[in-house]
Amino acid sequence: MPVTPAPAETQKTEKAKKAVSKWPDFDTDPKALAFLAALQQLPSAASDSQADRQAQIDAIAKLLRNFQHPANTTAFITLQEQGAILQRTLAKLGNDSPLHTPLMAVWVGTSNLQFQMSKWMQDVMLSDGTPPESNEW
Question: How far apart are CA 95 and CA 88, in angstroms?
Fold first, then answer.
């Protein structure tokens, strides 16, 4: 006789499926595919020097911020959307891709910015309106 999951377990499973399916499948998401195509058209780092690698990272970050799909519509407005497309692209390309390291650098920077913004907003909301700089004096 098959064992049926308890209602609480079923709800957890359904919530997990909804969380996973928040973003469309990469291969059927035209915005993700267009971003990947644009990403692959960027020039690779000219050499292994730090300056050339940083230039490639900067180009990817600029593409992420300015990417439009459909035309004249910014594709990834929020930091959450930017982080999500970077994570999905990293998962699609895999660790062996030459784009993995620069994409990871952009993702870390985006995640850090999102964290700093959240922390700043929390600090503002929890403060009495006095800037922290005033308290230090």
Answer: 13
Cα separation of 107 and 62, whole Å? 13
In a domain, 21, yes or no: no
Range of the domain at 87: 26-127
pLDDT in tens, 20-78: 557 788 888 999 999 999 999 999 998 999 999 999 999 999 999 999 998 889 999 99
Q: Return the structure tokens found at 26.
A: 């990469």
How many structural domains compose the chain?
Answer: 1
DSSP readout, 26-87?
Answer: GGG-HHHHHHHHHHHHSPPPSSSSHHHHHHHHHHHHHHHHH-BSSTTSBS--SHHHHHHHHH
The answer to whether position 121 is within a domain reads: yes
Instruction: Please say whether the beta carbons of 110 and 65 come within 8 A.
Output: no
- Please give the Cα distance from 86 to 45 (Å, whole number): 19
Residue type, position 122, single letter? Q
Q: What is the pLDDT of residue 47?
A: 92
In-domain check, residue 2: no
CA distance 65 to 79: 10
